[in-house]
Design brief:
4 strands, 223 residues, mainly alpha, globular, 2 domains, four-stranded mixed beta sheet
Amino acid sequence: MSDHKGVFDFILQEVWSEDLESISGRLWWMSKQDSSNISPLHRQRVKGRQIIITEDPRLHLVWIDDQIFLKPLPQHITSSVFWDTFMSDPSKSGAAVKLRKAALGYLRTYFYLIQYESDLRIAQDPALCLVPKEVTWPRFCQFTARFNDITDNEVSGRYHYGEIRLSRLNYYAPVLLGKSQYQRVNHQYRAYFARIQGPVISVFAFFLDSPELYASQPRRLRF
């Protein structure tokens, strides 16, 4: 790790969400103020949610309709080198504290996402690869056991919350972030039109069957 700053910046962008951190004091508008408000992976399946992989930390645990975005656990973040180099001393510079708090918050989310061995099997599904395949259940339990004791004071503001609804983020984005939306998801428009399609067709059919409509039509002359 000769380029220490470069590695530091790379790791920070893996766990830090500038948008959500900047509005962390208002996230209670959009989510339950509870860092444990995270359903394990098997419960995500029970809820009928599709897990969408993202490498963008600003989308981690953001959900809309039947989809939830999850950022895979980077392999380096579980290594002893990472902890010895970047996480061992919480009394370092402000930037190091910022990284430590964000990393601890992000790692704590996996304590809640993977509560059972079945959750780990889901996480290691080749279609998801949320957790490296070589991580065994005993090893994962040993690694995450300490995260149950992490308090909100030890993590960055975004991680004081768990799952966040995207529709609410989009709604408040113009006010809080000065953006037209937080994240555009094409399927939300399809879902909207799918919801109104039935009523629109029903209304259209009603007017087509209306006697007044037939009465207003010009009659053809018969010879």
